[in-house]
Each structure stands twice: as C-alpha cells, then as structure tokens.
Design goal:
about 350 residues; alpha/beta; FAD/NAD(P)-binding domain; 2 domains; seven-stranded mixed β-sheet; 8 helices
C-alpha cells in the first residue's frame, strides 16, 4: 500500500462534471486538490448511449466559466466528453482515474481516504477536507429476479447495432427506456417495452414522448403496460400482468433493464453520514453542503436520495462554489481567532 504523505486541502471523490466543478473552484481558490475517479474522466457520461444528445443547452453544462461550443443547439455525448477533457486540461486538475475510494477515516482537518487502483494497488491519501460527488449512475436498481445476472441483460444502453434483427425487451417507462426503444426500432430490432405503469411516464421529454407513443400506436414498438418481468432465461422472458396475474413467455435475445439508479448509501453510512430511511436523503447543510460529519461535504445528485430527478449537471455544478466558499470563509475565521 502506498502512502500519499502530503495532505491535500481538498480530496474530491467522483470525477463527473460536478466533481470537476468542485476541483475547478478549489484550483481557483489556490487549494491543493485531487479528484478520485473509479473509471475514466466523467465516467457516467462516457457510458451514456453512443449517439446521445443532451436535453439541455451547452451553456447550462459549462463549469469554470469555460465556454462550451457545439455545432447544434443541444450538445451530444462526444462534444461533452471533449469539453470536460478541456476543462481538466485548462485548470490543470489533478484527476486520479481508475482508482476506487474504499473508505474514509479520520476527522476534520486530518482525513485519510483509502483507494484501490484497477491494478489492485492500494493508496492512502490524506486531506483536510473531503467532497463526495458520487453521482448515482453506477448503481442500477436491480429487479431481483431469476436470470437477471445473465450476460444478455444490461442496465445501461449503449448502441443499437448489435441488436439488429433480434428480439429485445426494454424494461422501464422513463426517458432512458423511450430513447433506447426508439433507437433500437430504427436500427432493425424487434422491440417490446415492459412497464409497470399504464403508459409511458409523463416526465418523458416533450419532444420524445409523442415519438415513442406514435411508434407504439403504429405497432413498430410493442408495449406491455401494467406488466412486470418475473424471469429471464437464455432464450425467453416470462412476464406477468399486474391486473389479471396472467403469465406468459416471450422470445428474447437481449434485455435492457432501464429501471433507474441510486447513490451509494452504504458508502455514505460507513463514512458516518446520517441517511433518512424514507427519503434516503443524507444529512447536510443546504448552504455549505457540509454533512453531519464535519469536514465532509456533498455535491451533486448524491444529495437527492430517492428524488434523483431534482439535481442535474445544470444545478449540481454550482455546489463546488458553495463548498469552497464555506471552506475558505472557515479558514479565514480560524486565522482571525488565532
């Protein structure tokens, strides 16, 4: 295990846009910092569908006052990846990629974060303050059914081409499911949407909802509303009607279980952060973003608990400013008292 002796002023766990925004603010304030990211830079964005176009405009994804220039009104995945690489380079951010945070110990002013690289090598990083910008996209909501572990089952949608001329089930009724079903349909897959609700969710983006509803009405995409998947086999899936209880089997080659994601509440609890059992929201100060564990802060969607639809890149990118302001004002107050 390697020891990183010189303590950072700020250690940020999570290298997504919100984590990078925290690092940018730290760099601007002259604080030494490092970002710990278990995958590549902005790993969650990298795992978005290959042809994805963001719902928002580029200026709402900007961090560090660095302009985000793209060809069209809304940026795509490739443009976003390029932009955030440029942010890291412009501000010379210290990003330790492919290194997973395992545990946090110590106290305010003297924390130790134990990490493990993909090589298996472990490190110990010391920091005065810690920010958890964990996101939630890396932990899918599992269905807990037989066959969910089969290699044909995916909790992320990437590309339609491998599914050409195959029987594909898309489980879910929100934006991700609608986008995947449309893309699969347009690339020659035989698609069935399976959703517990009576229709696609009304929260599906306004320009996507009529498209998927028209594809369902025309029969181009099959839809089983008020149904759930009860079993997955190598060649079929079993579904059950939530109204009648009737079960039947469908031929199946690929399953996209797009049933949502959640933050790593176990990691938060292990750190000492209180979690509300109903909302799953962690305890933190909305002004400073500091948790009940002094010296540990939250940034981004990890604050939201179950209500992940309330925090996005667009508003999470400002949390870094709140955190750094709280840290630097606290340092000034300590000096004045001394």
């Amino acid at each position: 295990m390697m020891m990183e002796n010189e303590p950072y002023d700020l250690l940020i766990i999570g290298g997504g846009p919100t984590g990078l925004a925290c690092a940018v603010e730290a760099a601007r304030a002259g604080l030494s910092h490092a970002v710990i990211e278990k995958g590549c830079l902005v790993n969650s964005l990298y795992n978005y569908p290959t042809q994805m176009v963001f719902f928002t405009t580029p200026e709402l994804l900007e961090i560090g006052d660095l302009p985000f220039v793209c060809e069209r009104e809304k940026p795509n995945r490739i443009e976003a990846l390029k932009y955030y690489r440029r942010v890291a380079e412009t501000y010379r951010l210290t990003v330790r990629q492919y290194e997973r945070a395992l545990a946090i110990s110590g106290n305010d002013g003297d924390f130790m974060v134990t990490t493990e690289a993909t090589t298996g090598e472990r490190h110990e990083h010391h920091a005065r303050k810690v920010v958890l910008a964990l996101g939630y996209y890396d932990l899918p909501n599992l269905m807990g059914i037989s066959g969910e572990e089969l290699p044909k089952v995916y909790h992320y949608y990437k590309d339609a081409h491998p599914c050409y001329n195959r029987d594909v089930a898309v489980i879910g009724g929100a934006n991700s499911a609608a986008l995947a079903a449309l893309d699969l349909c347009r690339h020659g897959a035989r698609v069935t949407i399976i959703h517990r609700g009576t229709e696609m969710r009304r929260t599906v983006k306004y320009w996507i909802l009529p498209d998927i509803e028209n594809r369902i009405a025309s029969g181009e995409v099959a839809a089983l509303f008020r149904h759930e998947v009860t079993e997955i086999t190598p060649t079929r899936i079993r579904v059950r009607s939530l109204d009648s209880g009737e079960e039947r089997e469908l031929p199946n080659d690929v399953v996209f279980a797009l049933t949502g994601y959640h933050a790593d509440s176990d990691f938060l609890r292990a750190t000492g952060i209180r979690i509300d059992p109903e909302s799953m929201k962690p305890a933190f100060d909305p002004v400073t973003c500091e948790t009940n564990v002094r010296g540990i802060y939250l940034a981004g969607v990890v604050m939201a608990g179950r209500d992940t639809g309330k925090i996005f890149i667009e508003n999470g990118r400002f949390h870094g400013r709140q955190i750094i302001e709280a840290i630097t004002s606290g340092q000034k107050a300590d000096k004045q008292m001394a």
